[in-house]
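Let's study a protein:

===
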Amino acid sequence: MGHEGIPVQSPSAGIRSLPSVVVGIAVAYAVAAKVSFLATIPPGNISPIFPSTGIGLAAALIWGRPALLAVWLGSFSANAISFLDGTVTTDRGIETALPVSMLLGLGATSSAAAGRFLVCRLCRGRDPLESGMGVLVLGLVGAMACCAISPTIGVSSLAAGGYVPWDRFGYSWATWWLGDTSGAIVVAPLILAWHRSHPARQDSWRIPEAIALGGVTLALSIFVFFANHPFVYCLLPMLLWAAFRFGMRGASTVAAVVALFATICTCLGTSPFVRGTVAESLLLLHSFMGVSTICTLVLAGVLAERRRAEAALRENERKYQELVENANSIILHWSRDGRIIFLNEYGQRFFGYTEAEIRGRHVVGTIVPESETGGRDLQRLMEQICADPAAFEQNVNENVRRNGERVWIAWTNKVEMDSQGKVSEILSIGTDITALKRAEEDLRAAHATLERRVAERTAELAEARDRAEAADRIKSAFLATMSHELRTPLNSIIGFTGLLLQGLAGPLNEEQTKQLRMVKDSGQHLLALINDVLDISKIEAGQVEIRCEPFDLPASIRKVVQAVTPLSDKKRLPLVVQVAPEVTLVDSDRRRVEQILLNLLSNAIKFTERGRIDLTAERVPNGVRISVTDTGMGIKPEDIDKLFHPFRQLDTGLTRQHVGTGLGLAICKRLVDRLGGTMVVDSAWGKGSTFRFTIPVQPAGET
């Protein structure tokens, strides 16, 4: 357990240095022992009352191991001085006295050490004076049991040193044990009680009472012991008075005063305990001292336990009351007939009633309206809760304040049982959820408004959809009309112009031929424009039908290349085609793939003045990638995003050099998307461009 003792520290314990403590204990022990030796019983150095034992036990319990050194020093010093100064009559010299004194000190130290160890162990490190059981442990174990060690070692040492005859060993041992036990029982509790920390504030009226107790105790002690009256029982009320009114300090002090008078008067031969023999007198004296002191201190310990329990109960009640009163919740205590027993301060402020005004009133009509705003019967609800409160652990209902304001409260209910196990009262804890309820109502209103607006918007969208569908039908009809009504005359114009140019209607001069070629070119340009517009319109209207079937992709590439070769030859541009061997038959829309290739190659030739045109086709995972690369003027980075928008041309303004509708790339991009592929462009201004499109095709015959 280290150097520490039990927790009986005084306010001044921390300011004492260890050496001064050791010296102080040793001096106190030695002085008390020397006084005790004045009443020794021959033979040897044996005193019938030895308060030094109580000093040693108390010091060991308070200061721990350092006190044991002080006990040994004090015992050794007192015994050695007594042997050498003639206090004890003996013919032994210093060569015997010093070793015997050392052994006597060892016995006293062993007794204190054993008492400290056992008391601390049995009391689990707590102050033994805190309870009646602790006092019994201190008296029976720390005093009576452990005090058998010192006389065993001491009498054996005295007998071995020739101070006590061996035939008087038993008598000497019993006398020593009785003296040590009485000293430990009386003195140790006295020191421990006065060493304990104690409240500085005392009631002023206790001082006169303490003086009265002391005076009466002294008077009765003188009357009983000095006058040799057999009225020892008259001292019992004083001991009880001290235990009940002044606790452990008062009880231990009065017990010590009574024991002091009893011992002195017994030694003087005037007390009621004096009998024919010394042994009989000592037995009666020590029996009285032990029984009266232990019983008084046990009573004081039990009372101290009770006071602590009552103080703890009062503190818990205070904390509970403070918690209840200061809680930010409504705490309601009500009977099964609906009567209010208690409402905490927060609840009183919340509802607007005082405690006197609300106690005893029925909940319905006071804090609960008869019915909610929504129509629910709250009086019926309260009757159901009172009839079976266990079934309503949680409920939410509307409540009413004194000013008539309606509020919503969430209640948690707990039943309280009486001694017979029947429900007697109900404890309800409420939380104001009015703001939450209002938020819920606002949310429901907002939800209803949203649903109404969504319905209105849905109707508007349905109407807009109907209009769009009607417009789409008109557009489809227009496209069908345009497809027939515009293409037919244009084809006639182009056809008849061709016949005229062939001279079938007669010879033409140079100017006529020139003008007819202009008419034919314009007609073809207009027909291409109409075809592009119709294509982009059909694509955006979702009317382009995709028909996938196996076809020979290399053959289609050759077909398209053959169609644009006159254009590239006219500009003297080499057209290089590279088709990977693994690109053969594929499943896709042949017509749309050829249309994409034709547009890309035509654009490449149109915008390339010198250099070459490259077309490559290769297999990639899950598809075929076709690239068209030119060495034309390229595209500026800021213009790339405009490429695939309809009617957007990068070559615009007064300096425009190339004719076109601006629909070719837009049509290509949308057709690739419809085929499930992707199209990207890489270009550098002044260096040319590469258009790549990938279509997810599946070779014919594969799954």
